[in-house]
Structures are given as C-alpha cells and as structure tokens.
Amino acid sequence: MIKFIKRLITKIMDNDVTGMAAQLAYFFLLSLFPLLIFMTTLLAYTPLGQDDLFNVIKEFAPEDSFNMVRKTLDEVMANRSGGLLSIGIIGTIWSASNGMNGLMRSLNRAYDVEEGRPFILARGLAIILTLAMIFVFLLALLVPVFGKQLGMFVFSYLGYSNEFLHIWGVIRWTLTPIILFIIFFVIYLLAPSTKVKFKTAAPGALFASLGWIIVSFGFSFYVSKFGNYTSTYGSLGAMIVLMLWFYLSAIIIMVGGELNSLLGEREDNRRPNT
C-alpha cells in the first residue's frame, strides 16, 4: 500500500495535476452559466423549479459564491427570450460542454495517451456526457420529490409511516454520494481516449465522489468561518472563492483519474505474457 501511494504521488507530480486543475477550473467557470441556463430551461418541462436546483447547489457551494451565481443567473434568465428549441440553445450546450471537453483532455494526460478520436467524435462525446450528467442530476432532483410521496403513500397504507420517515432520512443522505459515483464512474469509463475497465474505473469514482463532498463541505466551512476574501479582492471575492472551489474540485477529479490509471497499469502488469 505504501509503495502504491508513493507511485500515485509520483504520477500526480509528473503529470502536473495542480497545473491541469487550474486549467480545468477555468473551463468549469466558462461552462458554469451555460450549463445552469440549459438546466433551468429544462426545469420548465418538469414539476421542479429553480429553487429545487439551487437548494442542491447551496448544500455544497460557498455561500458568497452561491449568492453571486444565483444573482447572475437570475439576471441572465430575465433577459433571455425563446424556448428550449431555439437556435441559441445549441450554442449554450456547446459552451456547457467546455468543462467536459477539458476534463477529457486532462484524463488523457493521466493515462499518458493522445486524443485519438476525431474532433467531431470527441466533442460529440463531451456533449453527450454533459447531457447525461444533466439528466442524472435532474433525476436526482425528481427522486426526493416523488420518491418521498410514493414512499409515504405505500408505508401509510401498510401503517408504517413513521418508520418510513426514518428510512427516507437515511436514503436522502446516501442519495447524493450514489448519484455522484454514477456520474464520475461514467466519466472515468468513457472520457479517456483509451479502453478503461469497469473495475479500474470504480475506485477513482468512489474516491472522487466522497472526496468532492468532503472537500466541498470543508472549504465552505473554512470560507464562512475564516476566509475573508472580500478584504483582499473586494467585490471579486465571491468570484475568487468560486474559482478556488473549482480548482479544488478539479484536483479531486484528476487524482481520481490518476488512481484509475495506476490501477489499470497494475492490472496490465499482472497479465501473463502470451
């Protein structure tokens, strides 16, 4: 285990994970508002509202950054016209996939491979992964609404409504890590320009989902209690905090990719020569 950790640290340093994370944070910022605009537009076709979307984001994002993002999105949506099927939504989806496209290049570096897929195919995959991520996220929003109603109906019919509330409380806290694991697992499996096995994609997905939750909560707590970025950056403080959150998130995702890559190398080395 110690030898494996040393190799992982060496691989992280050799691939300049912190530098790649800085690039990813930039791409995440570029894709943030197009992604939120597209998701907000889709909400009109569901029983959900913007508050349901922002309630999930609020649990993890630093408060100042959350307020800035919500205010900006409200201003953008107030000035937008047209529906989901307008021509402008195509550009929105393309912009929203910038973060995924940057992540794909970063994971290629983790696996020490060049992008071997044609540009259209690679960009198309980035868009598909982005749309899949949005779909899973919206599904995660719908499950608490209708899952609780359905569960209350069934358990009330059986006379165990109080027991269901306790069970639902446990399910609610385990739902977010499960959804994140699914998203990261699919990304780690399909994003690199090389074949990745299921069993070598799972450890990184588990690390990234749990690590991202811990880091997000920890960073949000630090900013709210100790980090006074406004005194240094003024009105840009909220933007700096958002960029730092993206930067830390990118490091966690990249380390998960490096972990999967190293596990894949070890799996290949164990194969008998033929």
From TrEMBL:
The chain crosses the membrane at residues 21-45, 83-104, 125-147, 167-191, 203-223, 235-256. It is a multi-pass membrane protein. One of its GO terms (cellular component) is plasma membrane. It is found in: Cell membrane. It comes from the Bacteria. InterPro entries: Virul_fac_BrkB. Keywords: Cell membrane, Membrane, Transmembrane, Transmembrane helix. PANTHER family: INNER MEMBRANE PROTEIN YHJD, UPF0761 MEMBRANE PROTEIN YIHY. This is Ribonuclease. It comes from Lederbergia galactosidilytica.
